[in-house]
Specification:
Blueprint lengths: L2 H7 L2 E6 L5 H15 L4 E6 L17 E2 L7 H7 L2 E5 L9 H8 L3 E6 L10 E4 L6 H13 L8 H14 L10 H12 L4 H9 L4 H12 L2 E3 L4 E7 H6 L22 E7 L3 E8 L6 H6 L3 E2 L3 E7 L3 H16 L1
Parallel strand pairs: 1-2, 1-4, 2-3, 4-5, 5-6, 8-9
Antiparallel strand pairs: 7-8, 9-10, 10-12, 11-12
Helix pairs in contact: 1-5, 2-5, 2-6, 5-6, 6-7
C-alpha cells in the first residue's frame, strides 16, 4: 500500500510526533493535519507532551492536544482511527504512554521519518535517512497527492512545511541542504509561507531570562580533545534561577560549533535525576553512535540521550573520554 493510497482512503485519523517536539516535528504534524482536514478528513494531532512556546504560532498548532489516557476521549479517538500517522520518529518508544496506546490500536499505522534504524512498527513505512527533514519528505508526499492542483499547498500547509525544513536544515546550512531543498522552499514561499516571520518567531524572539541563561551557558564552555570537542553545561537550578524551562535551552548547543576548530559540540544538562545530552557535529564526525552508547539516538550529525541516575560532571567526563578515543 502506498502513502498516496493511504491518504486517499483515510477518513478518521490520528497524527503524532515525538516527545519534546522540534520544528520539524510540529511542522510535519501541522502540515499533514492541514492537508487532510482541507479535504474533509477528520484528523486529530495527539502529542506525547507539550510543545515549545516558540512553535505555538504555527498554523494548526493551537488545535493539537497533549495525550492523556483517561480523559478527553483520546483512547476512543485512537480506537476509531482508520489510520495513525507517526511522524519524525522511528520508534514508538519516543511517544511514552501514547506509544503503548498506538501499538494496541487496530488502525493501520504509517511512519514518515528520516532517522536511521527504524523499528518495524508500521504497516506503511516511508523512511529516508538521506532526507534533510521529515517536512521535506512530506512536501514530496503532499505535492504528489495534490496532483495538478494550483497551488499545490495552502498558505497554512506551506508555512508549516517551511518551518520544519528551515529548522532541521539549520537555516539551510547543513550538508544535505541541496538544490532540491531550495526548489521546494521556493514553491512554499510562492504558496504564502512567510520566511521572515518563521525566523523571527523561532530564533529571534527571546525573553530576558532566556538571554541571561544563554550567557550562563556560554560562560560554561570548555574545550577538549585538542580543540575538536566543545562542551556546554547547565543545571536545572541555573535554568530555574532565570525563570526558564528546558524549552528555553533549545538551540543552545549550536553555539558550541561556532568555536574555531571544533568538530563536535555537546550540551549537557543536569535534571533532577538524569543528565540530558545533546550532541552536534559540523559533518565531519558521526555523533549518533556516541549518543547510542548512552541509550540515545537521532541523526548522524545531531543526536541526543538521557543518562538516568547520572551526575553531570561524571557523565561529561565519560563523554570526553569516549570522544577522545573517537578522534584518536
Amino acid at each position: 500500500m502506498t502513502i498516496r493510497s493511504v491518504l486517499d482512503a483515510t477518513q478518521h485519523c490520528v497524527i503524532t510526533t515525538h516527545i519534546n517536539p522540534d520544528g520539524d516535528a510540529i511542522g510535519s504534524a501541522a502540515a499533514l493535519w492541514g492537508a487532510l482536514t482541507e479535504r474533509g478528513v477528520h484528523a486529530t494531532v495527539l502529542l506525547p507532551g507539550p510543545m515549545p512556546e516558540n512553535l505555538q504560532w504555527i498554523p494548526g498548532a493551537d488545535r493539537m492536544e497533549v495525550y492523556h489516557p483517561s480523559t478527553l476521549g483520546h483512547d476512543r479517538l485512537l480506537a476509531q482511527a482508520d489510520t495513525i500517522f507517526v511522524l519524525d520518529l522511528n520508534t514508538l518508544k519516543r511517544l511514552d504512554l501514547l506509544g503503548e496506546a498506538i501499538a494496541k490500536a487496530a488502525g493501520r499505522k504509517v511512519m514518515i521519518d528520516h532517522h536511521v534504524k527504524p523499528d518495524a512498527f508500521a504497516d506503511v513505512m516511508l523512511s529516508d535517512v538521506e532526507a534533510p527533514s521529515t517536512c521535506s519528505m512530506l512536501y514530496e508526499v503532499l505535492a504528489d497527492w495534490a496532483g495538478d492542483a494550483v497551488p499545490r499547498f495552502s498558505t497554512s500547509v506551506a508555512q508549516a512545511l517551511y518551518v520544519g525544513i528551515m529548522t532541521d536544515t539549520g537555516n539551510f546550512r547543513f550538508p544535505r541542504t541541496d538544490a532540491r531543498v531550495h526548489l521546494a522552499v521556493a514553491e512554499l514561499l510562492d504558496c504564502g509561507a512567510d520566511n521572515v516571520k518563521a525566523y523571527e518567531l523561532i530564533y529571534n524572539t527571546s525573553t530576558f531570562g532566556r538571554l541571561r541563561l544563554l550567557g550562563n551557558a556560554l560562560a560554561s564552555l570548555t574545550s577538549h580533545c585538542n580543540g575538536k570537542l566543545c562542551v556546554m553545561a547547565l543545571t536545572m537550578d541555573e535554568i530555574r534561577a532565570q525563570g526558564c524551562t528546558m524549552d528555553d535551552t533549545e538551540g543552545f548547543v549550536h553555539h558550541t560549533l561556532s568555536v574555531e576548530g571544533v568538530e563536535m559540540g555537546l550540551l549537557a544538562i543536569q535534571l533532577e535525576d538524569t543528565v540530558k545530552l545533546s550532541f552536534r557535529s559540523k559533518g565531519t564526525t558521526y555523533v549518533r553512535d556516541l549518543a547510542a552508547v548512552y541509550g540515545g539516538g537521532g541523526h548522524v550529525y545531531a543526536a541526543g540521550a538521557r543518562v538516568r541516575d547520572g551526575v553531570l560532571a561524571t557523565v561529561v567526563a565519560d563523554v570526553i573520554q569516549r570522544a577522545d578515543e573517537l578522534f584518536a
